[in-house]
Specification:
heterodimer, A: 78 residues, alpha+beta, SH3 type barrels, five-stranded antiparallel beta sheet, 18% helix, 38% strand, globular, B: 290 residues, alpha/beta, Rossmann fold, 2 domains, six-stranded mixed beta sheet, 11 helices, 43% helix
């Protein structure tokens, strides 16, 4: 499953990043790495962008960016 | 809400200014020429302190607390986009403080983040104070570890402690300090808490009175390690005295365009000449002392 399909308040573990170069670097700098738990905290009316809670801070991603992040849904606390 | 105009800070007047000819601009404890190339006036300070950290962690508040200046502060990321400078005196030594724009990483491409990185790499400040948001420690440690790859003359200002306490977060600073190998000082710069302790930690690192054993990040895969050491060896041969040859080698392997340029056009060489000049000056000073 990809991150853009995660429902509101859903939690998931990042398994893989598709993006490359500067985009990938940026995501990693913001703490989005394989093994990290993310939560879809706030979803804008059209679902784009969506705010995710990552390591205690909120980051907003466009749907196209979220689509490139592979996740495994999980129930555990972030 | 009133909006304060950012003050021009390049020449901060005040008691912290030393009389001309007093400071040891010639004693080469730091690489004067490179700092001047980067636009820092080093004439009247003994030590150069850089303030780095993620965006919105209170770097400018710490800067103001250290220098007594009123650099523009805002509660949103990206308030400081150009470097601000100030100075203070502590126990008779003059310190120049450089407030850098916030950055999540030393590897990013945006121009303000790049400025911060260049300064840390080539300005070679005597002490780098990394201002860390205590409420988002995990994310902030990414930059801390990157900076520790470049230099071990680091002090961590664990800022926003008041906010962390309000959120019920308590941090074992001694343990953190042991893990990172550098001093960690809890601060609430907004309230002036922890600033005297921070000053003391900065002074100790600047004067080499603290034993620093900076943590090195996880070992690289053998294949990468081999490439890095080969490349670092070649860099050291080409630019003798280059302090961060491994770091530069890693950037080259990543294909970072600005590092490639610096190697190609020899601006890395300028840095290394400064380092050897500093080495020679230090040796000369030792000879006269003995």
């Amino acid at each position: 499953m990809n991150l853009d399909e995660l429902p509101r308040d859903g939690r998931a573990v990042v398994t893989r990043l598709d993006s490359t170069g500067a985009d990938r670097r940026r995501l990693m700098d913001l703490g989005v790495l394989p093994g990290i738990v993310v939560r879809a905290a706030r979803i804008s009316p059209l679902g784009d962008p969506t705010a995710y809670l990552v390591r205690g801070s909120m980051i907003a991603l466009r749907r196209s960016q979220a689509r490139g992040i592979h996740v495994e849904p999980c129930a555990e606390e972030a | 809400m009133s909006v304060e105009l950012p003050m021009p800070l390049s020449k901060a007047p005040g008691p912290s200014d030393s009389p001309p000819g007093h400071a040891c601009g010639s004693c080469a404890v730091f690489n004067v020429a490179n700092l001047e190339r980067l636009g820092v006036n080093t004439a009247s300070s003994d030590f150069v302190i850089a303030l780095a950290g993620n965006p919105n962690t209170g770097k400018s508040t710490v800067f103001n607390a250290l220098t007594g200046l009123r650099q523009h502060v805002g509660n949103w990321p990206g308030t400081t986009v150009v470097r601000a400078e100030g100075a203070f005196r502590h126990q008779g030594a003059a310190y120049k403080v450089v407030d850098l724009p916030g950055t999540y990483s030393l590897l990013s491409s945006s121009s303000d983040e790049h400025a911060a990185c260049d300064f840390l790499l080539f300005g070679d400040p005597d002490v780098t104070v990394v201002v860390v948001d205590a409420t988002r420690l995990e994310r902030n440690l990414n930059l801390v570890l990157q900076i520790l790859q470049i230099t071990n003359r680091v002090v961590i200002a664990l800022n926003l402690m008041d906010e962390a306490q309000r959120h019920g977060i308590s941090i074992d600073t001694r343990h953190l300090s042991r893990e990172l190998g550098v001093p960690v000082v809890p601060t609430s710069a907004r309230k002036g808490r922890g600033i005297p302790e921070l000053l003391e930690a900065i002074a100790q690192v600047a004067q080499g009175r603290t034993a620093l054993k900076a943590r090195t990040t996880a070992r690289l895969a053998p294949v990468v390690e081999r490439s890095v050491s080969t490349l670092a060896g070649q860099l050291s041969a080409e630019f003798p005295g280059l302090a961060n040859s491994r770091w530069v080698a890693l950037r080259l392997l990543e294909g970072d365009p600005s590092t490639e340029r610096a190697v190609r056009d020899g601006s890395l060489g300028d840095v290394d000449r400064q380092h050897s000049a500093r080495q020679r000056a230090l040796e000369a000073a030792e000879r006269t002392a003995s």
